[in-house]
Amino acid sequence: MDLGIKGKRALVCAGSKGLGRGCAEALAEAGVDIVLNARGAEALEATAADLHARFGVRVTAVAADITTEAGRAGVLAQAGQIDILVTNAGGPPPGVWSDWSREDFIRALDANMLTPIALMQALMPGMMERGWGRVVNITSQSVKSPIATLGLSNAARTGLTGFVAGTARQVAPKGVVINNLLPGIHATDRAIMLDGAVSKAEGLSMEEVRKRRAAGIPAQRYGTAAEFGATCAFLCSQHVGFMIGQNILLDGGALNYTL
Question: One Pfam family for this entry, by name (predicted)?
């Protein structure tokens, strides 16, 4: 399918690895020029070079912590005109509700709620002036079904979801489409971190933890960054102009919902 976005320019956050890289690859394959952001310069430059070599698109790598005001300013200064925004940031660590301090919550909100909002506020006015734009926020399945040990993430990402629900309806008349993409467990560094915590807490091997988790997924496996990226690219395409403010769950059927 022709996504109709060749020649557009996208900012992909946390795009050097994992789900962010999957999104950047799929957009590059569709002919989109990429502004690629991540904190680690070495992995970022390697990913940028790979995308340019494979797909022939322009890739601008900007190493910065997007969750800080200074980091965002640096990225936006080099971004130029952006048509597609993919927000993404690593999730807060797991823990127990009684252990989290105000500072823990502020860090989670900064990374997983306030940063995406700040990026949308910076870039959507230009999209609205041009009459076209796409925003995909990578959130979590926990928005629909909370994960007890990820209370910091549950809170921050649900807050972002509420902001998007109203904002998406306000900007849609100007051709700007915002949707959220909710991953379940995927084979990424985040999965390794979460599985490692379970392995340590329960005295199980990583293989045992992964097998047990996969057994609870109807698809019987973890998702891949490539299939996640393909879904993201579709949500950035010309074909989603009537899909406004939705939360698209990509979890292999793990959450047992009718609606």
Answer: adh_short_C2
